[in-house]
């Protein structure tokens, strides 16, 4: 059997359903072999979109999303999804190649990326953006490398891994009895769940039981471990308020009795206040990046006055930003389950405080009849069509902060945003991927800048017969940058008719300019059996940063994001 056929057998054995990619170089042999398999190849318009789709697939399924493509483009425009996966802890496997040309490789290179004389160095690029990568030179090494890529994509803190196919090594015949041997894929890719030791769990439980104002900060690690039930159970057991980081949004239904909203520089004021008043903080699966911590505002989190319990699968994250009193190193689901077993407490503090904090999910402008449409009103309309079976993908920029504030997620695992590396253009291809790998209605929300970067995702949705709704919050500019300083060149765009473009692709489309048309347009989009683009014209004069910045963020000068 050819090595490439054995690679495809490995993918099938490991349960891969989709490969997202673009044919080129020596991955063409891989695409040829995939044509004979049951795995669906999803080919968007370029490697950037393919990389985002693979990352989103991994984020949603918690199994590695697979990206395939030619080396120079996987290492450039295809790096977007890999960087998001690396910083956002999404499992992902990249199958690529170095475009080497065998005996011609010592001549003037063309596209060659194996890093030697005169060529590009794909390995160095991958070294900077993946957890691990391999450059196998033989059939045996290739098969073992693919297995290890799947293993390490999910082992410990999830992330992207890559295998660089090398020329004839993927077309040569696999030895029947190689030394060293190639083991069966499921056995070779097996991983084990980690949990913190009993002494640390006991100390954390005692701290939570003795707390008067216990507060949980739930981060992306709860999504990664799918520890949604365990999070709710711990909150109930210790009568703790649950706040989330931005990446942790929808780790708990934001309608839940213990839920208080999202913390951070553009988070909910009530949630931020609750964290600042806590006597014991349980941080679960959150690195506490500068946006989460209100850029280290002194009055926000105070290690000298608060007991900090930091639970994370990566020991580097535990106590990284703030000194931790107790570290719980292990899988979030296992850690939370152990905490439930170790103790309980009861009071009436959490329910009342969380209910008060949830009032921040609305604002008078959410009901405004003003034209142009206020961003608050637009998000309130989106909120009205989002139910427990709807998934929202959010882009970077002002749009995600409006959503953070005014979209109150009705169930866990219903909201995912670009927040690892935070690249614009993430939401549209992520929505197409989500439509392929889940049975949910999907709404992508992006600004006009981000949507224009990847609007060909609409055509991809048509080609693969899925029907996400693409919502464009259109203020004809780079809203977040423009509101920092409108003297910056290039912050205003020409007025693009996205509805016309979508119609040209063959999709449904509607331009919405008055608030009374919002709900009907969104309902029709969600109910449609074809992709729909809704171009909502919002007021560019409403300042996101001035409207939403927390008081703690203001205290440190409102640093630029």
Automatic annotation (TrEMBL):
Source domain of life: Archaea
Tagged with keyword Ribonucleoprotein: no
GO cellular component terms, A-Z: acetolactate synthase complex
UniProt GO molecular function: acetolactate synthase activity; flavin adenine dinucleotide binding; magnesium ion binding; thiamine pyrophosphate binding
A GO biological process held by the record: L-valine biosynthetic process
Residue span, Thiamine pyrophosphate enzyme central domain: 201-338
Domain named Thiamine pyrophosphate enzyme TPP-binding: residues: 395-536
Domain Thiamine pyrophosphate enzyme N-terminal TPP-binding: start-end pairs: 1-109
Keywords: Thiamine pyrophosphate
Protein family: Belongs to the TPP enzyme family.
Protein name: Thiamine pyrophosphate-binding protein
Organism in which the protein naturally occurs: Halocatena pleomorpha
